[in-house]
Amino acid sequence: MTHSSSPARPLQASASSALTGQVRVPGDKSISHRALILGALAVGETRITGLLEGEDVLNTAKAMQALGAKVERTGETAWSVRGVGVAGFAAPDKPLDFGNSGTGCRLVMGAVAGCPVTATFDGDASLRGRPMRRILDPLELMGAKATSSAEGGRLPMTLQGARDPLPILYRTPVASAQIKSAVLLAGLSAPGVTTVIEAEASRDHTELMLKHFGAQVVSEKEGVHGRKIALQGQPELVGAQVVVPADPSSAAFPIVAALVVENSDIVLTDVMTNPLRTGLFTTLKEMGAFIEESHLRGDAGEPMAQLRVRGSKLRGVTVPPERAPSMIDEYLVLAVAAAYAEGTTIMRGLQELRVKESDRLEATAAMLRVNGVKVEISGDDLIVEGRGHVPGGGLVATHMDHRIAMSALVMGLASDAPVKIDDSSFIATSFPDFVPMMRRLGAEIA
Ligand code: S3P
Asked: Of 192-201, 293-302, 396-405, which gets the smallest average pLDDT?
């Protein structure tokens, strides 16, 4: 179900006493989508544990079922997928509805583009507003055809997959794991080698998981910050066991909450620490945050750790633009940490924030401003004047964006006056248990 018809659910966060306790945030969203999609393209059974059971991922599960895979929930966060094999998708009998999820939608576009089927893609008002040309351009080079009456290939859009997909060499125009993954997933059914070159490395979960399912993928350095990824087409993917670690992008919210609420001391278990996802942790440590990693281990090529986080005095820093891909979803909550820091924080190179679930650059600035924080957007940079405390008292417009909702609530846990949000319902897309979990740690959210 998309949210357009659901009533808005306002919430308020108020100054809380020290947060304490141990929690495991839900499974990583990126890995959950990929486990379902690769499971659906594999032969045999894939067993997934720790799947994120948020709306975004459940929509991907439904899409995989509509395309012919057998997807079953076998226990709490435990799922089984029986796949159809590479290029084996069947035509769905109704439009695939991805709700709020750009990742689910764009990755499945790639997977469908390599199969001789036609599917219509749709989503909620937020997803319908997001650019799709960046995905459709390479997929059309590979032989797929997109038809949309909206400008820029936006949803609703019908994609006719290629009968004989061509392998391509593609340089991504922006650092985007979604573009890279769509090309690689389409390349699974092309003969020969499909290559993606990115000037700045984006999250590599697709590459790691493709290897885990038996594909041949070679990833090497390209230039200073980039990668070149080459996939041998037409592999037989074999169903696998996938253990989904906890999502560092979800962990970001309790982490920043514990840093800004005085005397907090919390532990987060099994947090994925893939270096292409941990830019926020690096930045917070530079700001003076107490974040201690222990119990390091790995599963299916993905490292994870236990994190202990304690209330900390933070100071402003400059975040370089090349760090953006490794923390692209975390700038909103970093801006909250920056507001509580002493001094100025400059976050550079945030142009991609404009095309997320909302225009996050504008929405983050508005969230801070309405709560008395001095903030400026200069080109693609966000500049926050930290004063060590936040006046609060504002009503934050969440624009159908889960991360604005959670960031604003985190801000209200230490502000002078409570912070309100207009709608909490989109939190269910990525972190359905957010409010009860934060309350268990001691957060005042009502
Ligand atoms: C994701 C990639 C990122 C990120 C999104 C998840 C993924 O998007 O913002 O939440 O799982 O591949 P871009 O690839 O567009 O930067």
From this structure: 293-302
The first and second tokens of residue 187, run together, are 């390349």
Last residue of a domain, one of 212, 243, 274: 243
Burial of 294 (C-beta count, 10 Å sphere; 0-12/13-18/19+): exposed
- For position 6, what pLDDT does the model report? 75
What pTM was estimated for this model as a whole?
0.98
Instruction: Give yes or no: residues 17 and 91 share one domain.
Output: no
Q: Which numbered atom of ligand 1 lies nearest the CA of 206?
A: 12
Question: For the chain, what percent of residues have pLDDT higher than 70?
Answer: 99
In the reported structure, the alpha carbon of residue 101 is separated from the centroid of ligand 1 by a whole-number distance in angstroms of: 10
Of 207, 222, 243, the residue that ends a domain is 243
Just list the catalytic residues. Answer: 329
Q: Is the CB of 207 under 6 A from ligand 1?
A: no
Could you give phi then psi for residue 327, rounded to 5 degrees?
Answer: -150, 30
For residue 419, what are the domain limits? 11-27+245-445
DSSP H/E element including 158: strand 157-160
What residue owns the CA closest to ligand 1's atom 13?
Answer: 176
Q: How far is the CA of 82 from the centre of ligand 1 (A)?
A: 26
For residue 341, give the nearest of 375, 390, 377, 376 by alpha carbon. 390
- Nearest-atom number in ligand 1 for the CA of 33 is 11
Confidence of residue 299 (pLDDT cuts 50, 70, 90): confident
Measured from the CB, is residue 30 less than 6 Å from ligand 1? yes
Q: What is the pLDDT of residue 1?
A: 40
- Which of 201, 192, 363, 346 has its CA nearest to residue 276? 201
The yes-or-no verdict on residue 300 having pLDDT over 80 is: no
Q: Which of 31, 106, 178, 180 to mutate to test the pocket of ligand 1 (most atoms within 8 A of CB)?
A: 178
User: Token digits for 136?
Assistant: 């459709």
Q: Is 242 in the pocket of ligand 1 (CB under 6 A)?
A: no
Centre of ligand 1 from the C-alpha of residue 107, in Å: 10
**Ligand 1 atom 16: residue of nearest CA:** 176
**How far, CA to CA in Å, does 399 sit from each of 29, 254, 286, 396, 441?**
20, 22, 31, 9, 27
CATH assignment at residue 168? 3.65.10.10
- What is the rounded CA–CA span in Å between residue 243 and residue 298? 10
Q: What is the mean pLDDT of the chain?
A: 97
Question: What is the distance between the terminal CA atoms of the chain, rounded to a whole angstrom?
Answer: 25
Q: What are phi and psi of 429, to 5 degrees?
A: -70, -35
pLDDT at 298: 83
Q: Are residues 199 and 61 in the same domain?
A: yes
Residue 391 alpha carbon to ligand 1 centre in Å: 32
